[in-house]
Amino acid sequence: MKSICFFVMMLLCASYSSIAQSGINKFNLNFDKYNEETKNAEGWAKWGFYEFSKAVKLDNENYVGKVVSDKGGDFGCVIYKIPSFYKGDSIQLSGKIKTEKVKKGYAGLIMRIDGLNQMIQLENSHKKGIEGTTDWQEYSISLPFMNNAKNIFVGGILQGKGTAWFDDFKVTIDGQNIQVMDEIEQFQQLENVEPELVTIFDNYKMNLTFEDDFSQGASLIPLINIVENKRIVSIGEDTHGTAEFYKFRAALTKALIKNKGFKTIILESPFDDIEVLSKNLKSTPMNELIHSYLLSIYHTQEMKEFLDWLKFEGIAMGVKFKGCDDSYWLIHDLIGSELALQSDIEIARRSKEYLSIVEKYYGENDRNRFKIGSGVYQSLLSIDKYLYENGLQTARLNELIHNAKNSFLNYWLIENGKPIKSRDEIMAERVTFLAENNNEKIIVWAHNAHISNDVIIDNEIGLMGNQLKEKFGKDYYSIGLCSLEGSYTYIENNFIYDDHDYSDKLLKEVITFQPDTSWEQVFNKISASPFFIESFDINKGLPGKEVFGKLKLLGYTKETKNDYYDASLLSMFDAVVFIPHTSATTPLLED
C-alpha cells in the first residue's frame, strides 16, 4: 500500500475541462454530463495504470465512474479537478461506492490538494478501504484545508484486483457544499505586490546588529518587549547549519531568561538524549557530551558556547534544557532507574516485563519491530495506569513515561489499523506537556518548518507550530529566521534517527539555488543589514489576500531546488528576522 501512495503523489496534474462557474451543478461530480465524443464524463480524467478508468452508463441511464483492474500496473483512479477559490478550515469528500471481487488491495475515495506547484495533502482511503463484493454505500474522507490550496482533485481509486463503481460525489468545506459556495481569489503571488511590500517593510523594519554582544543586546530590546509576556516563544532557522542563527537565538534566549522569567529551553532533538546531557553537564567534558548526545548537525562551536553558558550560568538560574523529539535509545534506562526507586512489588514485576519487551524490540528485525514496538507502548500504558491508580506517580516518572509513550505510539496505531501521528504532532504534544504541567515560560529552538503557525505541507511543514498556536493562541509566538546568501553546514545522512550513532561529518557548502523572486530577495531590497519585522504590522498594510512566494526551508542535508517552497511567510511567523549574508557553523574542535 505504500507504493500506491507514492505513485499517486508523483502523478502530474490531470487535464481539466473548462466548467461553468455558476449554478448548483457547476462541477460534474455525479458524472451525468457525458461527452459522447470523448466517451467520458465532462471534467473527469484517468489517473494510474488501469486502462478502463472512466465514466460508463448503467442500465437505469445513470452515469457512474468505473475502474477495472488489468495487468497494466498497481492501481487506477477516476479523478475530477476543482480549482480552489475557497476559504475554510476543513474539506470533506463523500461519495457512493460499489465493488465486485476486490482483493489484494482496496477500493475507496481519493482526495489530493495541490499548492502553487506541488502536492500539499493526500488522502486515499488506504487505511479503511473496501474489499470483496459490496453494494452501493456512501463513504467519506476529510483533510484540513490549506490556505495555499490551488487545485482540489477528488475521485475514486481501486488498488489491486477487481472492479469498483463510483457515483454522487459531494465536496464540502466547513460543512458548505462547494457547488454553491462563493468563489474568491484567496492569494496572490509575491512578484505582483513586491513594490508595495518593499515600502511597507521599510516602514516597519527594526534594525539588528551582530557587531558585538553589547550592541546586539541593545538591538534586541524591541523584540524582547514584544515577547516578554508570551508562554511559548519559538525561534527558528531556515538551515540547521547557520552560525548567525545560533548566535541570535543564544542572545535572545539569555536575555529572556535573565530578565523576563523564561526557565525552559526545548531543542529539536531526542528527549532522552537531552535528559542525559543535562544530567551530566557539570561532570562530563563538554565535547564528549556533545558527540554522545547531540545530533551531528549540532557538533559546532556555536552550540558548545551556548552549553558552556548553560553549564556555568543557566543552571544556577534554574534553567531546564529539554528535547522534543522521539526517544528510542536511552529512555528505557531512565524509566527503569526511576521505577527501581519504588518499593512496590507489582511495579518491580511490571518494570521487569517492560524492559524484557524492550530487549526484544532491539533484538528483532524490521518485520517484527512494529508488533514488538506496540508491545512496548502497551507495557508503558500498564505501568502508567498502575502508578496513577495507586498514588505512586511522580512528576519525573510522569514526564519520562509521557515521552516514551509518544515515541512508541505509532507502532500501536499501525498494529491496530489506525492513522499514525506525524513527528510534528508528537513534538507539539511534548511542548504542550511541559507548558501545561510545569506552568513555565518556554523557549523552543527548532527549524522554521516546525515552528510555523501555518501548515504548508500536510504532516511535514508547520504542524507543530500550528497546533501550539491553536492551543495557546496569542501566548504562542513564532520567530522565523531567514537568510539570502552565504554558507552553511550540512550532513549527508537523511535518516538521523535510525540509530544512536552521531558521527556524521559536518560538511560546508554555499547557498546556490536562491530564486530570483523570493521573500529573501524582497527583504534584501529593503536593507543590506539585518532587521526584524512583526507580521501583524505588515498585514495591516496589505489587502485581504494572502501573499505567497518562494521561501528557503533547508534541513539537515545539502541544498536542492526542492528546498524552496511557495509559502505565505506573513502567516507562518509572528515575526521574521532577516540576515542578508550568513556563514556556516564552525565544526566542534577536538579537546
What would a concise description of this structure say?
This protein has 591 residues and is of the alpha+beta class.
Profile the largest sheet. 9 strands, antiparallel
Integer-rounded radius of gyration: 26 Å
Give the overall shape, derived from the CA principal axes: globular
What value does the average pLDDT take?
A: 88
Low-pLDDT regions: 1-23
Please, how many helices?
Answer: 18
Q: Which percent band covers the strand fraction?
A: 25-35%
What does this protein structure show overall?
- Helix content is 35%, strand content 29%.
- It is of the alpha+beta class and 591 residues long.
- The protein folds into 3 domains: 2-184, Galactose-binding domain-like (Jelly Rolls); 191-323 and 440-582, EreA-like (biosynthetic domain) (EreA/ChaN-like  fold), CATH 3.40.1660.10; 331-423.
- The strands form 4 sheets. Strands 3, 4, 5, 6, 7, 8, 9, 10 and 11 form a 9-stranded antiparallel β-sheet that branches. Strands 13, 14, 15, 16, 17, 18, 19, 20 and 23 form a 9-stranded mixed β-sheet that branches.
- A hairpin with a 4-residue loop joins strand 7 (90-114) and strand 8 (119-123).
- Helix 12 (395-415) runs antiparallel to helix 13.
- The chain is globular and about 80 Å long.
- The model is unreliable at 1-23 (pLDDT under 50).
